[in-house]
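queue> holo job accepted (zinc ion)
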Amino acid sequence: MFSVISNMYSPYSCVVGHLVSGAWNCIIQPIFLDKAISGSEKFNLTTFEDKELDGFLEAEEIRTDIKLISGPGYVSTGCNLLSFIPAQIMTLQIEDKEADRFVMKHELSHIKNNDQVFMHLIGLTTCVAIAILSTRLTSKKIISFPLTLIIPSIAQILYMRYREAKADDFAISQATDEELKGAFRFFSATNNATQDHKFALDISHPSILSRLEKVNKVLEAKGISYSPDDTQEDFDKWSHMCDKIVEGQEEGSAIKNLQRLFSKLKERLRKKD
Ligand SMILES: [Zn+2]
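queue> job finished
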């Protein structure tokens, strides 16, 4: 028993952890994501009502077999590199076409650049390197284990922050003026929603305020001074988005997921009786 516990704290168990989480995020989750969300709508990106994205995918050499599913937020899974694995984008159903298209371009950038695969490769290679180095330098697991656990995670977070900023840059460079205004509404609404809900701590993305500022600078450079309350129509889109983002955060929160799991279990037990 002691040897099992002692082996669990071997730096090499961290390597196994990275292999498992990489397989989960890059292979298993993309295959089963849509099945994990109950009542989700599923449609193909190429048959998406937004025809303007069709030519965009071709021009940017992004795979066209991406499935869209509606969910509590925006998440992309899958990549261009491993095209035999399904690629999916979860979208929050907002009534703001321009904002939605901007965020879609951000998510498509992750798929185009295979960000998820590279993030896991960086975690895995850093983990192997630290495991080998730390076990050579010391035989004490109390030192080598935490090092192998923490350093690769920091490397992954730094990489993702960098890639998130790059995905924003890509979406900005590909956005029309109206989509930039949509991006402004989206970041501003997200900023509003996260101010009310402190649980939204996210260190893998640049801060919402810095992202809002980045979009604003591009708009200003184009000679556009913009605020969501410039017109009633934009204000309505913005306030609807605020509600949707708060709803999505509550819907996707860990507590809500646990509640759903318990109610499913209860239902199953009741059926057995
Ligand atoms: Zn992203």
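queue> The mean pLDDT is 85.
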